[in-house]
Automatic annotation (TrEMBL):
<dbReference type="InterPro" id="IPR000719">
    <property type="entry name" value="Prot_kinase_dom"/>
</dbReference>
<dbReference type="GO" id="GO:0004674">
    <property type="term" value="F:protein serine/threonine kinase activity"/>
</dbReference>
<keyword id="KW-0067">ATP-binding</keyword>
<keyword id="KW-0547">Nucleotide-binding</keyword>
<dbReference type="GO" id="GO:0005737">
    <property type="term" value="C:cytoplasm"/>
</dbReference>
<dbReference type="GO" id="GO:0000245">
    <property type="term" value="P:spliceosomal complex assembly"/>
</dbReference>
<dbReference type="GO" id="GO:0050684">
    <property type="term" value="P:regulation of mRNA processing"/>
</dbReference>
<keyword id="KW-0808">Transferase</keyword>
<dbReference type="InterPro" id="IPR011009">
    <property type="entry name" value="Kinase-like_dom_sf"/>
</dbReference>
<protein>
    <recommendedName>
        <fullName>non-specific serine/threonine protein kinase</fullName>
        <ecNumber>2.7.11.1</ecNumber>
    </recommendedName>
</protein>
<dbReference type="Pfam" id="PF00069">
    <property type="entry name" value="Pkinase"/>
</dbReference>
<keyword id="KW-0418">Kinase</keyword>
<dbReference type="InterPro" id="IPR051334">
    <property type="entry name" value="SRPK"/>
</dbReference>
<feature type="binding site">
    <location>
        <position position="118"/>
    </location>
    <ligand>
        <name>ATP</name>
    </ligand>
</feature>
<dbReference type="InterPro" id="IPR017441">
    <property type="entry name" value="Protein_kinase_ATP_BS"/>
</dbReference>
<dbReference type="GO" id="GO:0005634">
    <property type="term" value="C:nucleus"/>
</dbReference>
<feature type="domain" description="Protein kinase">
    <location>
        <begin position="87"/>
        <end position="451"/>
    </location>
</feature>
Length: 453
């Protein structure tokens, strides 16, 4: 088993920044030959300008940015940021909708070491100040609790936090999180396998590490992650400083062709995740990352959480949710990594008046083979929007595919062993129980016969 190179470093749980184009805008972008497929477009509305970027938009004065366009910090290779210039930027690892991630050298540590720095946009930093985003505080708490309970080592480790109050183009302030350097995310790791389905030994190892981390955050920290998906699980990167130095020498930072922004030339930096080392399978370590949406949950809450494909029914029906939404997501994630396809891919149909929630609820009922339990629906705050008194859907999507989980796995043709298939389906079914209290705790899932086999 060997690790390869990832095409990007996952640092966010949000969709890619959408392109914005204003009519009659005069383009100040670089020539078309410098554009790349899927390039982001940052629109400066007041100046009637469209600037195309290959990655996150930088170089735009903050005063000209529309409120819905994130203000990224313009970071240069060689910048020294943090208290007394503690962290020297040496490489760009990646970016997301609300942050960019950089490899830096901590020049004040003894001996100096490499770290990763997640630099939040101005908008995300404001959410930190209002308490909506609490990732830094949560990671600090995880670090503290890991001293007293097993499993904290399967979560990303935070070293430091600071705020860049000033920045180029007046985009500050920017909250910065300094963490250990990790490798590629699980979404890119699975690209190496046919159909993007993990081999069973790797999948079971991943689940053991994930469930260990969930047991720790649920019962050691009273936290619910709420955003479990392949992008938010990372491979630990066993790089020594000497290996990183050699990589930087052999593969120095790369730049895109210059982009002209309001008469100023800006050189976007290419994301270059560290190439993975050759690691035997028994030395693979998966770590849970991106706690930007994690919530402290001692009681049930009703706000909307989780990516659509991994969203539990109690969230859709506003029944009140707790940490068992993570267990539901484990079931969905297991199916996806086992087959290469998502179990739930709900779609709305405006012509039929069908919402994505309608389709999602139908797909859940078809997989379960039975309607929602009466006692479960009694807790719903919005059941009348979706369900009749008898539990049937008010708006019935025209397409339905009533298959069991075992049938869905069999149709994927990724498993030939019928006994293994049945046991895998049983594991997923345990995670996808309608009633949250009927779903096992992570520690119970660790003892499941399929994982132990």
């Amino acid at each position: 088993m060997f690790l390869g190179r990832s095409s990007s470093y996952s640092c966010e749980s949000h969709p890619t920044l959408s392109s914005k184009v204003f009519p009659n805008a005069s383009s100040l972008s670089a020539p078309e030959s410098t554009s790349r497929t899927g390039a982001l477009a940052a629109a400066i509305e007041d100046a009637a300008v469209v600037v195309e970027y290959p990655e996150e938009p930088i170089g735009i004065p903050a005063a000209l940015l529309p409120m819905d366009v994130p203000a990224f910090m313009e970071v240069h290779i060689g910048d020294e940021i943090g208290p007394q210039g503690r962290y020297a930027i040496v490489r760009k690892l990646g970016y997301g909708s609300f942050s960019s991630v950089w490899l830096a050298r901590d020049i004040q540590s003894a001996p100096s070491k490499y770290v990763a720095i997640k630099v939040l946009t101005r908008q995300a930093t404001r959410l930190v100040h209002t308490g909506i985003i609490r990732e830094a505080r949560i990671l600090e708490y995880i670090g503290l609790r890991s001293k007293f309970r097993h499993g904290g080592d399967k979560c990303i480790k935070l070293y430091d936090t600071f705020v860049c109050e000033t920045a180029r183009n007046d985009t500050g302030p920017h909250q910065c999180l300094v963490t250990e350097v990790l490798g590629m995310d699980l979404n890119h790791f699975r690209d190496r396998y046919p159909g993007r389905a993990l081999p069973l030994p790797v999948l079971k190892l991943f689940l053991q590490h994930l469930l260990t981390s969930l047991d720790f955050i649920h019962f050691g920290c009273t936290l619910t992650h709420t955003d479990l998906r392949p992008d938010n699980v990372m491979l630990a990167a066993p790089f020594s400083d000497e290996q990183i130095m050699r990589i930087l020498k052999e593969d120095p930072p790369e730049y895109y062709p210059p982009v002209l922004v309001l008469g100023r030339e800006v050189r976007p930096i290419v994301s270059q995740p560290l190439p993975a080392l050759q690691v035997p399978m028994d030395q693979l370590v998966f770590k849970l990352a991106d706690f930007g949406h994690a919530q402290i949950c001692e009681e049930e809450v009703t706000n909307d959480v989780s990516p659509r494909a991994f969203r539990a029914p109690e969230v859709i029906l506003q029944c009140g949710w707790n940490f068992k939404v993570d267990v539901w997501a484990v079931g969905c994630l297991t199916f996806e990594l086992l087959t290469g396809s998502q179990l739930f891919t709900p779609e709305g149909n405006a012509a039929e008046g069908i919402t994505a929630d309608d389709d999602h609820l139908l797909r859940i009922m078809k997989i379960q083979g039975r309607p929602f339990p009466t006692e479960f629906l009694a807790e719903s705050h919005n059941r009348d929007q979706f369900l009749n008194a008898d539990g049937t859907l008010i708006r019935m999507p025209s397409k339905s595919d009533p298959r069991t989980i075992a049938e869905c796995i069999r149709d994927s043709k990724t498993m030939g062993d019928s006994r293994e298939l049945v046991n895998a389906a049983a594991f997923i079914e345990r995670c996808l129980q309608y009633v949250p209290e009927d779903r096992p705790d992570p520690i119970e899932l660790l003892e499941d016969p399929w994982l132990q086999g």
